[in-house]
Each structure stands twice: as C-alpha cells, then as structure tokens.
Amino acid sequence: MTAARTLFAERGYAAVSADEIVSAAGLTRGALHHHFGDKAGLFLAVFEELETELTAEVAAAVDGVPDTAGQMVMGLRAFLDLCQRPEVVRIGLTDAPSVLGWELWREIEARHALGLIQNMIENGIAAGMIIAQSVEVLAQLVLSVTIEAALLVVHAKDPEVTRQAVEPALITMLAGLLRTTAPPE
After folding, report:
1. Is 128 left (phi over 0), alpha (psi -120 to 50) or beta?
2. What residues contact residue 176 under an 8 Å CB cut-off, 6+ apart?
3. Cβ(43)–Cβ(95) below 8 Å
C-alpha cells in the first residue's frame, strides 16, 4: 500500500501500472491479486487509509474546542489545509471520483467525514446553538459544500488567493445554521 500510495500521489492512478506498484513494493502480481484483487482494489484500500487519516487529523484539530461554532471553523480550516497536500489532491479529490465512481467515492467520504460532521451538528442542536432539523440531511450538505470548496481551491489558478476567499464564504454559510435568538422553551 505504501508503494502504491506514493506512486498514485506522484503520477495519478492512470499513469501507474500494477507492474510498477508490485515492483516498487518488492512483491509479485499474485500478492497484489491475493490481497486486493486488482489495481482498483488496491486504490480503494489506499483511499480508505487516506480518508481514515484525514478524518483523524480533522478530529484532532477540533478536539478541545469548547463550542460547536468553533469546532466547525477549526474543522473547516483543518480540512482545507489538508486538501492542499499533493497526495490528497491527486488521490482523494482528483482520482477517487473517477476511479471509484461518484457513488462509491461519496459513500466512503460519508463513512469517514460525515460522522464527525453529524456529531458536531447534533451537539450544536442539543446545546441550542443550531436550529433543530434533519441532522443527516444537513450533514450531507455541509460535507458536499466543504468538498466543493476544497475542489475550488485545488483547481484554482491561484490556490492561495482562492483559499483566502473560500474560507470566509464557508464560514458565512455555516453561520447561517446558528440560532440568532434563544430556542423556545
């Protein structure tokens, strides 16, 4: 997996052959087929590993932040920062949707990041900070807009300038979830 992750990040899925991967790993094609089925199965495992790591890093960034609004801002910043890493751009944002297909890509994204977002929203609703509504729907929408924001940044002609514009726009959108008055008793 390490050899594949390095090669996928450097050159992209389509430009890397299964033979190159097994050669770099010092293994045989039989080992690849035994453990992963094929190159696409190996890519899936690499992407799952990457998503697990990203989710853990975002969770660590929000750990200890005392309120939901602060958690959302810190989580957003951490995610946008992580999405500027070349391996995340290539594997997670560029190749994963085409290699895995949109549905599987979103399913995996949801399995990792969605739980973190749902937890923040549930805590915010329980604390009276977020307007009560469908947590599942809202979390999916927040995940979608956040991924789209990351794509805007990484595909921009000037990613740094775009990143500076995207973050406040997302914070403004997320602020719309917050109550402006106390919840009814």
Report:
1. left
2. none
3. yes
pLDDT tens by residue, 91-136: 999 999 999 999 999 899 888 988 899 999 999 999 898 989 999 9
* pTM for this entry: 0.86
Of 108, 103, 86, 113, nearest to 5 by C-alpha is 86
Q: Could you report the per-residue pLDDT of 33-49, keeping only the tens digit for each?
A: 999 999 999 999 999 99
Domains of the chain: 47-175 (1.10.357.10)
Long-range contacts made by residues 119-125, C-beta under 8 angstroms, separation at least 24? 120/62, 120/68, 120/71, 120/72, 120/75, 121/68, 121/177, 123/68, 123/71, 124/68, 124/69, 124/72, 124/177, 124/178
Tell me how far apart the alpha carbons of residues 96 and 16 are, in angstroms, rounded to a whole number: 14
Cα(134)–Cα(17) distance, integer angstroms? 44
